[in-house]
From TrEMBL:
Coiled coil: none annotated. InterPro entries: Band_41_domain, FERM_2, FERM_central, Kindlin/fermitin, Kindlin_2_N, PH-like_dom_sf, PH_domain, PH_Kindlin/fermitin. It holds the Pfam family FERM_M. This is PH domain-containing protein. The lineage of its organism: Eukaryota, Metazoa, Chordata, Craniata, Vertebrata. The keyword Transferase does not apply. Keywords: Cell adhesion. Residues 97-120 are annotated as: Disordered. PROSITE patterns: PH_DOMAIN. Belongs to the kindlin family. Residues 334-430 form the PH domain. It comes from Cirrhinus molitorella.
Amino acid sequence: MLKLVEKLDVKKDWSDHALWWEKKKTWLLKTHWTLDKYGIQADARLLFTPQHKLLRLQLPNMKHMRVKVNFSDRVFKAVSDICKTFNIRHPEELSLLRKPRDPKKKKKKLEEAEEETLELEGPLLTPGSGSIYSSPGLYSKTMTPTYDSRDGSPLSPTSAWFGDSPLSEGNPSILAVSQPITSPDIVVKMYKPQSLLDKAKINQGWLDSSRSLMEQDVKENEVLLLRFKYHSFFDLNPKYDAIRVNQLYEQAKWAILLEEIECTEEEMMMFAALQYHINKLSIMSSDNHMNNSEKEIDEVDAALSDLEITLEGGKTSNTLGDITSIPELADYVKVFKPKKLTLKGYKQYWCTFKDITISCYKSREEAHGTPAHQMNLRGCEVTPDVNISGQKFNIKLLIPVADGMNEIWLRCDTEKQYAQWMAACRLASKGKTMADSSYNLEVQNILSFLKMQHMNPDPQIIEPITTDINPECLVSPRYLKKYKNKQPGFVRDLISARILEAHQNVAQMSLIEAKMRFIQAWQSLPEFGITHFLAKFQGGKKDELIGITYNRLIRMDAGTGDAIKTWRFSNMKQWNVNWEIKMVTVEFADEPSLAFICAEVDCKVVHEFIGGYIFLSTRAKDQNESLDEEMFYKLTSDGKSSTDGRRETNAEHTVKELKDPCSVQVKRRTKKKIPFLATGGPGDYATFICLS
């Protein structure tokens, strides 16, 4: 490379340039190696090119930014650097996604909607000097508040807010402040998945985190989507995470508007009211912040800490109660077991909920005898079916059995009863009892979620219907189509009135609290956090869906989306991938193993989702917040992904650990035993990398 630069005789900084081997899709980054060691011969075509190139990123708020990204770094590292630029903590939750192609659009028009592109040559211009871009408290354990916990605005001037990042000179509000949708046409032009199969096709576009952008044929100036990939949001704190909270809110908002996730009409009006409230407060806060440098930030801390605990699944100090006994529920509940060709006929039972088991008795007096039905809820699917105006409070349970799932419906009479039983069912599905400290908090969250959906019986609407509501920008097209036979003006006024009615339930919330409530409500939807992939299961005749969430795998019907069978990660022993036939096999402690072939998607994407969620489950607040990249790669890599295309580095790392001799059976075409050296005692797990 030195001789090449001397021959070119052009005076410039060449330090960012490296050699790229197109045929093998490999960066030649080990400059102490010879070309011969890389296996390069005289006819090889090498490209001498900068490692940092411009990328057009579409953020969760649908705004586009041009960022310089290292095309030789693994995607996991590149995303981590991007998040440092944007002051987003926990970058392991995000990744890059290719833009889905709308099958209705035959030709690619010029990207009209992308005129708002902010050029941002971030920390990635100078490799290795990332420290100046880490903003105050970003990865330290003794963090100081960076944002106002009421409206999410910076507590200090923008230069301190973004450190030396060019964002301090640009317009930071594009990231931390929600910008209202200005025209219904924006929503109409967006690609909307019409079915579960369409959603599965979008998920084919996730980039491989273990390989670089160049290795995955990403071109300079290409548009990629930066999205929250894993729906497990750790330590979400408004004091340090205004940008992260806003981008999460934006991703949730667009998921609801583009019908990527199902919700009821009452829930849609609640989301629209929160959105309207957030839009109003965002405009007010951006106007007022310049005049208001000091604000009281402690008055909502207590409420926000509860919200924070909810979103991170932590524990509260005031809900411990009596830890010597496990609480129980006992009440009359209507129960229904669907059978073929039967109408929904609920039968009332005296039901007791102890530990993780529901027992049903014909009457209260028989509660000391043998129950008529008994259900163990460990590993079950819990789905709400609620209609506030119709006073319908149903809980759908899919309970795992040997040959699939048993469907049971519970009907409660009141909101309070529903909240208690729903919270208990959710905990029981995870193997937890009502003694868990999160039970009371879960009950309160369900009650507050229901309260936000109440329509105010008082006909007096606080504010007149104004033109700034624009309901077409607040509700999804499906709910507008319901009134397609009505006059457009009438529909607009009707929906606006319903939004204002729902707004009275949230009108007192601060800006950041409203965003947190929106995220929390999004997390409460039955379909939240399920990533779908098309798959063919062993023994199955047709294509079905595999759904992956933060704690389980779900086999689903491709047409209806109904769960056929569920497997919890907590019950999983190991999973393996056969890369040749694209088959994923998962073994469980006390269940038959699961095997499926990935259809239309690289099984590496599915493998990475499973490994990624397991990696995220190891995070703890008392840990140092630096990321264990190597652990992530061990759990998600296919063993051949590396920036130089060789496996030798991993092999060397493994060899250092090897001490005691043992023999290992290698499962391949031949069952020949090969002698290995391995650490640990009998029964311990070890990872082996075969060099030949």
